[in-house]
Structures are given as C-alpha cells and as structure tokens.
C-alpha cells in the first residue's frame, strides 16, 4: 500500500512539473544586443534568457550581463527546444 501511494505521488509530481512548462507555437524573433565592455579578462558573458509572461502568454527577453564564474565552472547558454506541444525555452545555467 505504501509503495502504491508513493508511486502515485511521484507520478503526480512529474505531471505537475511537466504542466508548468510554457509552450508557444512560434518562437519570438532573435534579439541582437550589444555587449558592454568586459570588466576584466576573467569575466564571461552570460547571454540573456527568455522569460515566460503568463499575463500575455508570450516570452520576453532579459538582458545579458558580465559575470565572474566560480573556479571550475562554465556557463551553458539557454536554448529553444521544439516538441510536439510547441516551443519552449530551456534556461541557461552554470555547471
């Protein structure tokens, strides 16, 4: 009985998180930005991310910025993914 309850709970959590991914039928147009001068040679450019606006049901772009990474970490840029349900943005992240 405990195993069944656990399994049903886990399936519910997975479905809940899957439903939170906002999909759009068309991607927003690419945005061309000008990078400001780097503060130092050790800074890396973190490209802006797309953020879903639930009020307008569309994505808006956040500006990029310079960041000094922690030792041994690198930034993986975000990317658009296309599925049967539509297009959605996968946020960039440090790894």
Task: Describe the fold and architecture.
This protein has 95 residues and is an alpha+beta fold. It has a domain at 33-95. Helices cover 19% and strands 29% of the residues. The protein is built from one helix and eight strands; from the N terminus they run αββββββββ. The strands form four sheets. Strands 1-4 form a two-stranded antiparallel sheet. A two-stranded antiparallel ribbon has the order 2-3. Strands 5-8 form a two-stranded antiparallel sheet. β6 and β7 form a beta hairpin. It is flat. 2% of the residues are buried. Residues 14-18 have low confidence and may be disordered. It comes from Emticicia aquatica. Residues 1-19 form the signal peptide.
If strands are numbered along the chain, what order do they take across the biggest sheet? 1-4
H/E order of the elements?
Answer: HEEEEEEEE
Strand content: 25-35%
Approximate helicity band = 10-25%
Protein name: YXWGXW repeat-containing protein
Organism: Emticicia aquatica
Signal peptide: 1-19
Keywords: Signal
Topology:
Elements: H1 2-19, E1 44-46, E2 50-53, E3 58-61, E4 65-67, E5 75-76, E6 79-83, E7 86-90, E8 93-94
Antiparallel strand pairs: 1-4, 2-3, 5-8, 6-7
Question: What's a concise summary of this model?
Answer:
With 95 residues, this protein is of the alpha+beta class.
List keywords for this structure.
95 residues; alpha+beta; two-stranded antiparallel ribbon; 1 helix; 8 strands; 29% strand
């Amino acid at each position: 009985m405990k195993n069944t309850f656990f399994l049903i709970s886990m399936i519910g959590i997975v479905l809940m998180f899957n439903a939170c991914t906002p999909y759009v039928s068309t991607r927003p147009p690419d945005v061309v930005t000008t990078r400001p001068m780097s503060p130092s040679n050790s800074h890396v450019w973190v490209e802006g991310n797309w953020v879903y606006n639930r009020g307008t049901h569309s994505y808006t772009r956040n500006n990029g910025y310079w960041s000094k990474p922690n030792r041994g970490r690198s930034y993986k840029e975000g990317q658009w993914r296309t599925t049967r349900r539509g297009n959605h943005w996968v946020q960039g992240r440090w790894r």
